[in-house]
Design brief:
The protein is mostly beta strands. It has six helices and 63 strands.
Length: 929
């Protein structure tokens, strides 16, 4: 404790000594700065430093006067006081103390108001225990003039670097109106006029201001108090020149200030339309007319034009372009567009306004609006022979368009442009096309309103028709024998009307076709002798051509058994019932109506298992594998049956009648594999591995016939999508074989094998996921899927298959009407051929149109068409709408050069298969490696 007290007493003695030393230092004694003694503390106390930027010591300036009002302040011998700052730094062993002090410098102006001085600071001073140093000057902070003042003026300061401008400014030096001196205002538009007061430096006055307004002139009125800083004036439509007088007075620091009056001279301007146009007039419905307005009025306003078109149209409006001219006036230009939607007489009215009552109205003359120009062209479409002039009749529909009309022009479609310049409602355009072809011609007619109506006319230029050449399948036939007559014909304009005739007065067949493929005709001749078969053709242009052929008719009594099986002309799938009609004739083609008796049917083993159905129902085979058809199965001289064989190959069925018939008959049926019902068997796994497998299967139909062509679809379904590969079916030493290869990916999936006709053969099969590093092996892949040309035939064939199966079952179960199924089939097939001979290319609805009996259902109609397609009598295709279409399979014999049609989907499929075959080893389905 005693030691601590001694230290505290010693510290107090040191502080008192430092205070005595500092108080003994002079305020501005010269000296120099010495370093602090070693061992002294260097801590710094909180500073009270000066803020701002250190200024320059020399200062120069000028004192001036801005204002003319007397008495004016004096600028000579005026005293200018300048306030500034400097910083004191006091250092001792206890640290450094910083303080900021203010100082003043004074200087007198010369005769012109100029002055200059230095802003000084103390010099450095040091003693035994510390130093005083100074920094600055900071500022200056402000200026003050202490002499030469005048009432109503105030001092302004503008400091830049080392230079200052001081000015005595008159607090209220001038006043003006806004607008000033002269102003042109719109009639009936309120115009605001304000007062602006300025001090001697041109800045807004800071004096206390009072205002006085007086408006003078006939037709001028004011609103608002007359002692405010602004008023509003309005000019009536009869207003003449006007004057607004402004008085501004004020006071500053108790000194009253008066200013002379200020006058504003006003002129009133009314909005006036000086010119207007409406073009075109007359015009058509749908044509656009341009409306222009030229007006004058006061500048400084936004002008809008409105148009009431008439004829029920809504009002149109548009902003106008305003261009100032001399004397506060403006030139106004407005433009609008209008399109009439109905015809009649319109009375358009326009109005130009700046939004106030000052507006100008313009009444246009009546506008005649005609119905939209309409043009007809005949014939449309047009047909003509090559090199023969085609006459196109062009006419304006009555009460449409605006006359006069013309010219009428034709773009021929082969690079030519022809016009008929004659005015009028109707024109004739003549053009001859040198070559056969189809051209897209365009006819154009203009009218007086500027409308231009264009009409497209397809032109079909054809060759002149040739005389038909008639061909008969027999030149000599027995009495009542059947003859098929066909014809070759080319050229002509479509449609073509034709008539088949014989020597007799009756017409065998007639019709109309849209091509030069004239359908043939089958007929019988009862009279023995010479018959002349004639075909007459008339085309759409009226040209008549005739061709003929002679036929010799003989007679005779022999009798024999006949068999007719249209489906036997082509291949049929195993197990498919083939309709066969048995009959008898006299040896010359005359069919007898008698019932000869039972018929024996011999079926060789090469046909496999066989089934026979008649109108009485199924017929059971005998011990030798043949069948016996009872006499009761004959109806109207015919015996209708269906025969089905199960073994692929040529199946020759022999029919033998009773001894009264001189000869029997046979039918050869070309039986093919049934691709709609196939089975996979005898799997042989050749390769297997992580995520992959390759198995060779035997493939045959349900009757055991090996399938050696086509393909199966190997489908792999994974979470990320579906992969379909077509695996081709190839012939092998043991029959048909096909590879079923799978390659799994990702987390695995499910496999299926689907036949070419969408029959599931295998699946679902689990496809285990391969190891993560496995990738698809290109040797296992069989190729990419190919587009299937003929999908339409597949659908039709499936429908036929279902119909035949259903019909077979119905015959077995319902013997009440044994002849109906085959009669319907025969009538339906005949109707399809007849319809396609009349309508060359049509869909299923067109094929069924006009059937005399009960309308067929979808499966029955598919059976009729499907059997004809299978026999090659009908050719299917796919129309642009995606629906199947059919036509007779007879070739197009027009001499227009070969016609090549490329199916892009079939071509892509063929190319894909070609590339696959090129990459595969000898057995393309087998896995490699």
């Amino acid at each position: 404790m005693p030691i601590r007290r001694r230290r505290t007493a010693g510290a107090l003695v040191g502080l008192l000594a430092l205070a005595v030393f500092l108080s003994s230092l002079p305020a501005a004694a010269p000296g120099h700065f010495a370093g602090l003694p070693s061992g002294l503390a260097t801590s710094v106390r909180p500073a009270a430093s000066c803020t701002g930027t250190v200024g320059s010591a020399p200062v120069a300036g000028v004192l001036s006067v801005e204002g003319t009002r007397t008495p004016r302040p004096m600028v000579a011998n005026a005293t200018v006081s300048i306030r500034y700052l400097y910083q004191t730094n006091q250092s001792s062993k206890y640290g450094i103390t910083v303080t900021c002090s203010s100082a003043n410098a004074t200087v007198a102006t010369n005769a012109s108001g100029g002055f200059a001085t230095n802003l000084s600071i103390p010099a450095t001073q040091c003693g035994p225990t510390g130093c005083l140093t100074y920094r600055g000057p900071f500022g200056p902070l402000g200026f003050r003039v202490t002499s030469g003042q005048s009432p109503g003026y105030f001092l302004t300061t503008h400091w830049a670097g080392t230079t200052v401008d001081l000015a005595w400014v008159d607090a209220l030096a001038s006043a003006v109106t806004n607008p000033s001196e002269f102003a042109t205002v719109s009639v009936d538009a309120p115009t605001v006029i304000t007062a602006e007061a300025w001090d001697g430096s041109g800045a807004p006055s800071t004096a206390n201001l009072t205002y006085g307004w007086v408006v003078d002139g006939a037709g001028w009125t004011e609103t608002g108090p007359s002692n405010a800083s602004g008023i509003s004036v309005r000019a009536a439509s009869t207003a003449g020149p006007g004057t607004v007088t402004l008085w501004v007075n004020g006071s500053y620091n108790g000194t009253a200030i008066d200013l002379p009056a200020v006058d504003l001279y006003l002129t009133a301007s009314a909005t006036t339309v000086t010119a207007a146009s409406f073009h075109p007039n007359p015009l058509d419905v749908g044509a656009t007319a341009t409306v222009t307005l030229t007006a004058s009025g006061a500048a400084g306003y936004a002008y809008t034009a409105t148009l009431t078109p008439g004829l029920g149209l809504s009002v149109e409006s548009a902003r106008c372009a305003v261009t100032p001219t001399s004397g506060g006036e403006a030139s106004i230009a407005c433009s609008l567009l209008v399109t009439y939607t109905s015809f009649g007489f319109a009375q358009p009215t326009a109005n130009v306004s700046n939004g106030y009552s000052s507006s100008a109205i313009w009444q246009f003359p009546n506008v005649v609006v005609s119905a939209a120009l309409a043009v007809v062209v005949e014939p449309d479409p047009a047909e003509s022979y090559a090199t023969v002039p085609l006459q196109l009749s062009v006419g304006v529909v009555d009460s449409t368009g605006t006359g006069p009309y013309g010219p009428a022009c034709l773009v021929t479609g082969d690079g030519r442009f022809l016009c008929n310049e004659n005015p009028g409602h109707n024109w004739t355009l003549s053009v001859a096309y040198p070559t056969v072809g189809t051209y897209s011609a365009v006819v154009t007619v203009a009218d007086a309103s500027g409308a231009n109506r264009t009409t497209s006319v397809p032109v079909d230029v054809v060759a002149r028709p040739t005389a038909p050449v008639v061909d008969l399948n027999f030149s000599t036939i027995p009495r009542n024998g059947s003859v098929d007559a066909t014809a070759k014909f080319s050229g002509g304009a479509f449609p073509l009307a034709y008539w088949w005739n014989t020597t007799g007065p009756d017409t065998l067949y007639s019709g109309v076709v849209a091509s030069d493929a004239i359908p043939g005709v089958a007929f019988q001749v009862a009279n023995v002798g010479t018959e002349v078969v004639t075909l007459t053709v008339v085309d759409a242009l009226g040209t008549v051509e005739t061709g003929s052929a002679k036929l010799q008719v003989t007679g005779g009594p022999p009798r024999s058994l006949t068999a007719s099986a249209p489906l036997a002309n082509g291949t049929v799938e195993a197990g498919t019932p083939v309709p066969i009609e048995l009959g008898t004739d006299d040896g010359y083609g005359d069919r007898t109506l008698s019932t000869p008796g039972p018929v024996a049917v011999a079926v060789p083993p090469s046909c496999g298992e066989a089934w026979v159905n008649t109108s009485l129902g199924p017929v059971e085979p005998n011990a030798s594998g043949g069948f016996r058809l009872p006499s009761s199965a004959w109806t109207s001289g015919g015996l209708n049956l269906t025969f089905a064989a199960t073994r692929a190959g040529a199946c020759v069925v022999t029919f033998t009648g009773p001894p009264s018939l001189a000869s029997g008959a046979n039918v050869t049926i070309d039986v093919s594999v049934n691709p709609y019902h196939v089975l996979l068997s005898d799997p042989r796994t050749i390769a297997t591995g992580p995520g992959t497998s390759a198995t060779l299967y035997s493939i045959a139909d349900v009757f055991g016939n090996p399938q050696t062509s086509g393909f199966v679809e190997v489908r792999s379904v994974f979470p990320g999508g579906v992969n379909d590969l077509d695996s081709p079916i190839r012939a092998g030493p043991d029959g048909g074989a096909v590879w079923v290869n799978f390659t799994a990916s990702g987390s695995g999936g499910t496999g299926y094998v689907i036949s070419e006709y969408n029959q599931r053969l295998l699946g679902p099969l689990a496809l285990p996921a391969p190891p993560a590093s496995n990738a698809l092996s290109p040797t296992v892949l069989l190729g990419v899927g190919a587009a299937v040309l003929g999908g339409l035939l597949v659908v039709a064939a499936l429908a036929v298959r279902r119909r035949r199966t259903a019909g077979l079952a119905a015959e077995r179960l319902d013997p009440t009407d044994p002849d109906e199924p085959l009669r319907r089939l025969a009538e339906g097939r005949a109707h399809v051929l007849s319809r396609l001979s009349f309508d060359r290319d049509t869909d299923l609805d067109g094929v069924a149109d006009g059937f005399p009996g009960p309308a067929p259902d979808a499966a029955e109609l598919a059976e009729w068409v499907g059997t004809l397609v299978t026999e090659g009598l009908v050719q299917p295709s796919v129309g642009p709408d995606g629906r199947p279409r059919f036509r007779l399979a007879s070739p197009d014999r027009r001499p227009t050069g070969p016609r090549v049609e490329v199916d892009p989907m079939a071509l892509d499929a063929a190319l894909a298969r070609r590339d696959l075959d090129a990459e595969e080893p000898a057995d393309p389905g087998a896995p490699s490696g």
